[in-house]
Amino acid sequence: MKLRLIATGISVAAVTAVTAAPAFGQAEKNETAAKAEKKICKSFLNTGSRLSKTKICKTEAEWAEDLEENAKLLREKRGSQGGPQIGNDG
Description:
This protein is of the alpha+beta class. Strand 1 and strand 2 form a beta hairpin. The chain has three helices and two strands. The chain has a two-stranded antiparallel ribbon. The two termini are 28 Å apart. The chain has helices at residues 2-12, 27-36, 60-79; strands spanning 39-45, 53-59. The protein has a domain at 37-80. Helices cover 46% and strands 16% of the residues.
């Protein structure tokens, strides 16, 4: 639940970039880059509602970055609770 809230908060803060028109000869490069940056949309349920959803669209790289950041935050939270750790004999 907290992981979903963190992902939603991070994604809401995303800013879109504006690009200029490509120069001659760069059209092919931009075309392949656009295919690689295809948007993937996911829907998340809003807390406190059974019907309301939020749709978030990002590239595959952005989703992977968010997943990695959320995993890092989760590891930090679990480590700071003082519970038994692997290799801690306790």
